[in-house]
Amino acid sequence: AVPHGAAEARAVIATAPVLELRGVEKTYRRGGFFGARAVVRAVHDADFTLRRGETLGLVGESGSGKSTLARCVVKLVEPEQGTIAYHGTDLRPLSRAAWKPYRQRIQMVFQDPYASLNPRRTVGDTIAEGPVTHGEPRGKALERARELLRLVQLDPGAMDRYPHEFSGGQRQRIGIARALAMEPELLIADEPVSALDVSVQAQVLALLAEIRARLGLTMLFITHDLRVAAQICDRVAVMQRGAIVEQGPTSEVFAAPQHPYTRQLLDSIP
Ligand code: ADP
Ligand code: MG
After folding, report:
1. What is the pTM of this model?
2. Which of 28, 80, 236, 245 to mutate to test the pocket of ligand 1 (most atoms within 8 A of CB)?
């Protein structure tokens, strides 16, 4: 079932565009065997607008360009074309230095909590690292890390422990706390629950939904799993081979899919 009430309540405040992508194109060129070149048009025709307080789901099967599109927003990937407007400012032409203040406002949560957490850093320091790098005194940042642990429903005793001592779901909570430490306005979650067991997925999704409401976060939520999208996204954009083929309110897209590819995805849900 697709939740309605919360989405409608948020729709009232969701007016100002936070992020607008227009004409973004990214092509990967790889050297292949015997000098052959593989060209992958990872993203093209993928315009969308994300409004304040809204959660937009980017859905589509593996390889459809979801991560590339998300990574363009945080400059981990440099697209050849297009505008990436954050509150009306195009981030694409900005130098790394000019772009730095925006980086605080846009944070990412990744799929694999193992890969994205430093095993030699305590949980407290992991969460405090971003603010400390941006000039916050360490004591103050650690104090805030402790509050964030409470927000993600982890015991404060976690502060002095290491990531490997935690389960996958707990590590994802640590990853979320680390992203929130920068007080972002926009959270990009790239397959944040895909590595987790289904029961743990539901817990982490519930936590994200609660935090989003409490902090008024705007979210770009990436998943290959439409059932996951149905649980948390106000709107969904369906990607196929680098293009958004359909987008709209989650309930509408699920009830009456317009594009054959969307219908195919929905039919494949057991
Ligand atoms: P998704 O997140 O939807 O699985 P990706 O954005 O990761 O899709 O990938 C889109 C396409 O771009 C795929 O064909 C993938 O193989 C290719 N691709 C992604 N990253 C790179 C890279 N760093 N170098 C070359 N090709 C890449
Ligand atoms: Mg991906």
Report:
1. 0.91
2. 28
